[in-house]
Amino acid sequence: MNDFPGRRVALSNARKVRPATAIAVGAPAITLLALLVQAPADTQHDTARYEPTTHALTSADLFCPASDRGSIRIASASTSTDAGSLTQRRPGTSTRTAVPLQVGGSRTIDSPEGVLLHAEGGLAPGLTGARLGEPRPSARECAAPGGVRWFVGAGSGASHLSTLTLANPDGGPAVADITIWSTDGELQDIESRGLTISGGKVSTLALESLAPDAHELAVRVVVSRGRLAASVRDEFGKVGEALRTDALPAGASPSLVQVLPGLTRKASSRVLTLVNPGHSEAQVTLAIAGGRSTFAPSGVAEIRVPAGRVVVTDLTKALAKVTGSEDTSLIVRSTVPVAAGLRATVAGDLVHHPAIQLRTGLLSSVVPDVGAPTLVLTAGETGGKVTVRWDSGQETTVQLNAGTTLAVPAPKHAHLVTLDADAPVAAVVRTQTKDGAALLPLRAVATELLVPAVRPAWPPR
Amino acid sequence: MTVTALLVSHDGARWLPAVLEGLAGQTRQPDHVLAIDTGSSDDSADLLREALGADAVREEECSFPEAIARLLPEVTTEWVWILHDDANPAPTALAELLATATRHDAAIAGPKLREWPSLSRLLELGVSLSATGRRETGLERGEYDQGQHDKVREVLAVNTAGMLVRRDALESLDGFDRHLPLYGNDIDFGWRAARAGLRTVVVPSAVVFHAEAAHRGVRRSALSGRRTRTHRYEREAALYTLLVNREKWFLPGLLRLLVGTVLRALGYLLARQPGHAGDEFAALLNTLGHLPAILRRRRQLPAAVATTSGLRPPWWLPYRHGLDTVTDFASAVALQGRDAAERRRAARAERLGLPAPAPVDEDELADDTGLVARYFTSPLALAITAAAILGLWAARVAFGPIAGGALSPAPAAAGDWWHLALDGWHQLGQGTDAPAPGYVLPLALVATLLFGSPTVAVSVLFLIAVPFAGWGAWRFLRAVCELVTGRVDTTVAVWGAIAYAAVPVASGAWGQGRFGIVASAVLLPWFAHVVTGLFETSADRRWRAAWRGGAMLALLTAFTPSAWLVALLGVAVLLGLGFLLARDVVASRDVWLPLVVVLLVPAALMLPGAVGMIGHDPAALFLEAGRLSPTPAAIDLISGRVGGLGAPIWAGLLLLVPGLAALVRARTRVPVLACWILVAVAAVVAAILSHVTVSLPAGPVRPGLGFLVVVIQGALVCAAVLAAQGLRPKRTGVHSQDWRFVVGGLIALVAVLGPVVGLGWWAFDGDNELDRPPGTDVPAYMVQAADEGRGHGVLVIRGDAHKGITWEVHRGSGITLGEDEVLALTGPDQRLDRAVRSLVSRATPQILDTLTAEGIDYVLLPTPASAQVAAGLDAADGLTQASAPDPRTRAWQLEKSAAGDAVAGQDPWWHRVLVTLQLLAILVVAVLCGPTRQEEDA
């Protein structure tokens, strides 16, 4: 019994924790714990990047413009094992005829009319071609469809006529917007937007009809819908003389450095056309890339190109001494992106030197038969190894130093040249006879297609 | 004027002594008394022989009509007085009957039947049959005899108990119909008498006390084997009598009986008396089975000499009875009986001898002033009105069609929702048989009631969210305070209601269009209120609460599926604690089974969805309603925000102060602990679910935690309200510097600040996404093309080559409310995915044919359109340019048009079965949820 009589008190264990208190402490504690363990918020938006993959190119189109001089040479710079197929058709018609072209080989197509070529399979990568004329050398490359093309050195006027040809290789209509700059500035108020070319058709546009009497022009063709192959033919002659014709190849887009390779040793006239499509004035300096180094020619002042204008500079005297002794290329450096084109008269023949984009990787072009074709390469800021392959079997590897130009003569019976450059180079095939000269730029061999990653939209919008 | 009394007895030993005494005590004694015992198993025959002599008693096993026919040849008097073994005549009965019958020249006279044993309630004063076969006495149930029916009247028939009938009339009418052995032979007899031109009068001055043994089912006979089948046999007798005796309109009458049977059965089902409903049909079928016999009898009967329509009830009487039933039911639903809290209050008041408190109803005002004056002088009414107007103004964006955030646009008509809910195959995406979400069916019903417009239904949901949440919280808090603490502090309850009403809007669910959470927040307090009924003492009320709770949980689960998980855990915890602490109470089936029923009902009511989800992906149980929305972080969860835009978080955290402070007060600790256990459970479930990523066929989805946010807020509010009961400072005895007063004041201030900031944010600053419908890039003419069939779809391609391309198919006017979940469960069609991949890289005519076969007519690249893809599609043969309002949007039309039913499909057979079962389940549960009727019919 208890010690104190009369007192009945339950002996309680004061240290025992009552369950209510335990839960009163435990419940908020468990809540806190659960909150600490909880994962962070999730917006449930998918922000991952899905990188595209590359697939081999399996389809290519080429447009060879009409001409009454010369036939078309088509070559395949592809190394694919698949045989592929090549068909040709005349614009406006739908009958396609097969062209028996081998992978890595070349073929001649005799057709004075323009031809739309379509390659499938193994023949699609590296399809290249040009219309080659003789005896006076002329070369007009077959144009591949592209989004933006620059033609610097066109004209519309009595002594300088340019014709723009747009070809639509696809089934549906394509739409192009043409912008023209002249020495007075960008030409507004011309009906050059939304030019529609139906599927499989070719449209020829004389720049004179768009912008009459504007002598020196730079033209930019932007394809806003569909695909179009653009090519320009230029006719130029001094007052009183006959007009001479040459292709005006598409040049590089405006940049701070423009490279115009393949200057001939002699030329009776050289005129540089510069266009500044930007909004601030450009200060342009010229340099020559010779065999050993790049140097500035003496007597050439800095050229100022106002915003939105074309500036034409006569470089005949300034370049005469420098180009005579070796193969050279013209380097145009500017403070603001400009596009350049050089128009030369060689032995009475008109020759256009386009600015070529410096590229690494595979480049190719067909090689004319007439004259002594030479491959002229110019390296940019970095030098490197370049492997030159001719379809007649020869292959050489050259080391190209930075800022230098190298000329490689073409072997006999070579119809196709392919370059594999480790360093960025600009290259042309130049052929020259006593009657004139012609230039064919080497274009990049497109072997792959960027295929975007496709997935169903989640979460749906 | 001689009278023979015929006494028919069957197992009537209980009442016979009194009857015989009454017979012996008549002022006008009958000249002869004959009795027949029809096969009794007790000692009625002996009693009869004792009282009347052996030669007056016959014994034969037969029915009542046969008994009368057996005795009739032995009757030689002018009049026959028929008595039952449970009909005790008053001393003056026979005298009055005779006198009145001869005075009025009636062939049949019946007494006033009064109830035996109570002796003063009226039973019958003549009886008639309505056109639907209902036995009409013209009296109310349990009417006291105060002399209101004391006129002598001519009637169609009188009960055979105490009937005085001329012997030749009895003979000419061939006695009672043997086809009606126990019930209804009186009306049939009276009707035939009326047809024959004989007059039947009721004599109110003659009183007979009748125990109604047969009707009450107390009398057992071979016929009425089971006690409860009297209803059926009475009905059969009534139908027989009607069909046999109707002079005109036999066929229309038969049809009317058919329709009437269905209606009556429906009425019995609503009253939760399925047995009676079954009886109605059984009686009808039996009668139809005996139709040849009925027709034969009709031919047998002599042609009617006089018309009886004046003696039968007017034609509108059955409709009046129907109306009465409906209003009865409606008023029962409206009144609902008193809820548990008020009953307890009343019981307590009764126990303490206090006057019963009037039910506190804020809408009930004093009766002696005018309505308008009352309204304007009541601060509560004015405050509620001001709050309502402010609420409507704050929700003004919901007055038009709303879409945005998690809310897809509403479909054009309620029929679209019905199709979505009831069809097994949906023409969405590439056609799918995934189940529609559970909330589509209730929304379809609401939309149908609201002028058939889903837009109105959605707008109404968003407009009434805050007031209904507040009202529900108010009712629940009052009830739970009363039940738990025995008092209700109105101010604190008002604070609780306002704090909870702020939850749907301050959490950001309203502004983000997360209608599932909004609907859950509105329904939760109503559900909680119903669940308090599970703790009632009466088993019937517990079951009622279980069915209603199950139905509400089904609705909650339809909108936020995690509600079912929380309920599952809650029931498990409750039963676990119950089995630990009070095993013998909880082990009774009437205690734990209702809790389990609450969990099972949602599964039954959402049957196609539940089964379909298991067929497709059980993880879809976690899908939150509507489009994908951000999930809350831990800080959001505890401050009552659902992630994404919402009121400032610090305002939500303020609610933790009264919630935690509620734990301190010892008096209310136990109920507050229950609330905090709920908070802890919800937090644990949220923590678990937040780490789960559900991989649905369409893509990864995070489970919806919105319901847990609402539950936590509700539990905190409830804890604070419970703890604050009775905490008002008394005017005397407390210094204002008392630290408890200061702390309490601070807590109150903090508690008020939180909801005020939340509601203020919503009303004045609240940004919401409800007026931003998802991108309508698709041109109108493409949408209209879908009018000819959902197979005319638009393939919408977005993105660019570097970040990836996404595609989706737009059908009709796009994804509407309820279709997001179906598409989430479906997943993209593999064939179409491959086709789109090929389309993007190189479009060939074969690919375009595949697209046409998959039901695509247009390809659309909204801005910013990927140039590469656009160029590729431009190059394709078989695509023509199509126009789009935005010049930078590219569109193409496939040259071959898709078939209108390109994505149509067959409803799977099992879906129809499930839908039928679901609708039946809904019907059954709806009936079981009905209000408790005052009396159940025997």
Automatic annotation (TrEMBL), chain A:
Q: Where is the composition biased (Polar residues)?
A: 76-97
Return the InterPro entries for the record. DUF5719, TM1070-like_sf
> Which intervals of the chain are annotated as region Disordered?
75-98
Q: What name goes with this protein?
A: Secreted protein
Q: What species does this protein belong to?
A: Nocardioides jejuensis
From TrEMBL, chain B:
Q: Which residues form the signal peptide?
A: none
From the Swiss-Prot or TrEMBL record, what is one GO molecular function term?
A: transferase activity
Enumerate the transmembrane spans.
380-399, 439-468, 515-535, 555-580, 592-614, 647-666, 673-693, 705-727, 739-764, 909-929
Q: Which domain of life is it from?
A: Bacteria
Q: Which InterPro entries match?
A: Glycosyltransf_2, Nucleotide-diphossugar_trans
UniProt keyword annotations, A-Z: Membrane, Transferase, Transmembrane, Transmembrane helix
| PANTHER family membership | GLYCOSYLTRANSFERASE (PTHR43685), SLR2126 PROTEIN (PTHR43685:SF3)
What this protein is called in its record is Glycosyltransferase family 2 protein
| Organism this protein belongs to | Nocardioides jejuensis
